[in-house]
Amino acid sequence: MIVKEILLEFGSVFDPRITTDLKKKGYKFLKKGADQQAWLEPGTGLILKIFGTTLNNQGYGRLSKAQQSFKDFADYCQKHKDNPFLPNFLGWETFYRGGETYLQIRMERLFPFPNKYWGEWLEEMANAAWNYPNPMTWYAAEMSGQDEGDYVPGTAFSEALPELLSHLGEDGFKLLWKTIRDLEKIADRKGYGLDLHSKNFMLGSDGHIVISDPFFAR
Question: 86 and 173 in contact (C-beta within 8 Å)?
Answer without folding.
Answer: no
